[in-house]
Queue: 2 jobs
Job 1
Amino acid sequence: MEHSDPPRRLVFIATEDWFFASHFLPMARAAVAMGLDVTVVARVRDHAEVIRAAGVRVVPLEAERSSLNPMAAGYAAGQLAAILKALKPDIVHCIALRAILVGGTAAAIAGIPSRVFAVTGLGLIGAREDRVGRAGRLALRALIRGPLATRRTRFLFENPDDAIALGLDPSDRTVTVVGGAGIDPAAYAPRPLPPQPPLRVAVVSRMLWSKGIDVAVAAVRSARQRGAPVELSLYGAPDAGNRRVIPEATLRGWDGKGIAWHGPTRDVAGIWASHHAACLPSRGGEGLPRSLLEAASCGRACLTTDVPGCRALVRDGAEGLIVPPGDADALAAALVRLAADPAMVARMGAAARARIEAGGFTEAAVTDATCRLWRDLLEG
């Protein structure tokens, strides 16, 4: 009697279950469809059942993602190494910097050479241009290309700038650059623009200082003072686990005179149906923001900043307008331009949708590229 080979095993290491569920479920489903035995190891709160419904095992790992304490990271790596020794994966796929540092260490301890380091943005280390930021990037480069890497380590980036910042050539065979986590263009389909004026702009994001929420507020106030009919809607929750969280009292204090904070939402497509343009004035550290992917797929013009990730999707004057990070005056001028030209708003929105469909930013394009990477490791 013939015996079929047991399925190959893939373990995702993520910081939080909600982050995996919101961004990477299509990738997990693709792995299951490949016939892989898939496990997600993450801090578990409210999304384990959603992940399990995709045919994926969930193993909890308690590790505070906001902690920079090396002792805490070392303890988490030890716990994770024990989990990996029990699971015996063929590939360990680490998502985001902390998971790369902890997961790479654990994979080394457990003796698993096939590793995928998926960099979903460089965070504060990537955003800072001072000595601390440069030193942080050098240290990170030394770690993930040194003791944490093997000849069977592959690097997955959401924009080419992050690869270059870590001393890697985006065209190297060990490097794959994808369009973020990808977007389902059918789920985020264009709908007719609402009447204009006013120009209705939305920020859909975690409410963090690093996302430039305060810059958007200041820019809208300035544009309105110049006579432009602009309204700003803020959708998203303060992320208590992030050191750059904006206090709820501050968000409530911004309400009024054309600005409203609505809290979190589950109907992102519905938001874009009632708005003309997306705004994400990030200060940097992005991979490729899902907020911009969703808005572009819905056929909405995008206002964003000249930082890695944001500029990988949006081209100035084509899919939207790009301004320097932290520059409320420049963002206000961009808002005034869009408020005065509804035809430009519509043209940029159509270009944004076309870029999603043709530029490798769909879920299908991202999962195909990732599956090729896994096959390369499994067949190697």
Note: The longest helix spans residues 70-87.
Job 2
Amino acid sequence: MKTMSNKLKINLLVVALVASTTACKLPQVGRRTESRTVPPSYSASRDSLNTADTKWNDLFKDQNLKALIDTALKNNQELNIVMQEINISKNEIRARKGAYLPMAGIVAGAGIEKSGRYTLPGVVEANNDIEPGKKFPEPLPDMLIGANISWEVDIWKKLRNSKKAAVYKYLSTVEGKNFMVTQLVSEIANSYYELMALDNQLEILKKNIEVQQNALEIVKLEKIAAKVTELAVRRFEAEVLKNQSRQFYIMQQITETENRINFLVGRFPQTVARNSSGFTELVTDSIHAGIPSQLLSNRTDIRQAEQSLLAAKLDVKAAKAEFYPSFRITAGAGLQAFNPTYLLKAPESLICALAGELVAPLINRNAIKANYYSANSKQIQAVYNYERTVLRAHIEVVNQLSNISNLKKSYDLKNKQVEALTKSIEISTGLFKNARADYMEVLLTQRDAMESKFELIETKKQQMNAMVNIYQALGGGWK
């Protein structure tokens, strides 16, 4: 017994020495340690106020729009799918946490065994009695009730690092959900403003058709008075028909935009409640961009990339620990007998076992190396992805700030253009009645005035979209 114990100690020592020798020779991989910082400001001025800190239900004043967003956050199918992904990630944490805790189980079993006469068990059974005058049963039953426990001692923190990596992946999934919320809020708001713009364009088109129909009647009277030819009548009539046909194109756009909103809200096609009057008078709230470093805490896609990077670093540590020896302890205890009457008879039926196992990879470690190299590559990928996300966020904010400024200047000029062309309709119509202007001048003036109003509506829509987009780019909408 002492000899066996000494041999066991020697074997464990040899295994430990071999394991430590092989574990120290880890494959070398490249590491990216370069760090980049964001610029101190978007422009010459530095404003600490940040619109991203405003909640979406405080930013949007339209009650119909707020109701749509609130419904979408509850019913949007894609968002609900992501919520289930979060639950899956949470369960992964529980699984990883359980891996470094002792595993215990209850064992119960029964069976029969027939040993050959010329085998060691057969010879023992043939030449020994269970009790004086009582032979071994043939075949020999076997019954067992017991419990066992196994525990891998997490010496190198392999299991704990895997659990921490699962936590960061869970947090990354949560940030992914927040990023989707931001996108969902922005998409509904942009579609809502597009719907309002289409309503206004349709209203402008109907009024313009009414004006053109009145002009057509005047041209018909002028033809009767022989002041114009049939060509003028036909040109005015064609213009009326063209705009009447254009109504249905806009109506189709309205239907598609409504259903896009309905899909985002998670409901079947229906009319979207809205009040489109006064759309051109909507005022975009003043935007405070703050400083670029605030993007790191407000932009959920940056936060998601950061959590993924932390998880990738821990995955590398866990993969590295695979080269080191692992130590597992197993133990068991129970009752075992060939007859139910003896099963509960102790200590004769009592069995127990205790073992320790130290194992380290020695030959053919290619699978472990491949896993280690892949973990390092994924970590470098995560670094690049984080840098790319920060860069993209900064550029998006700068683009939208420039867009807001340019759209404001463009809208002011287009507004003056609409005023000038609206007055020119009255002037051209009066000159035509007095035979001092050609009918084509009236026709072109009406056409230009309508197109300028359409462009004004389009610019206002772009202004509202720019406000929503800068809010999204700054990282607002998910709080």
Note: Residues 29-100+154-323+370-473 form a domain with the Outer membrane efflux proteins (OEP) fold (CATH 1.20.1600.10).
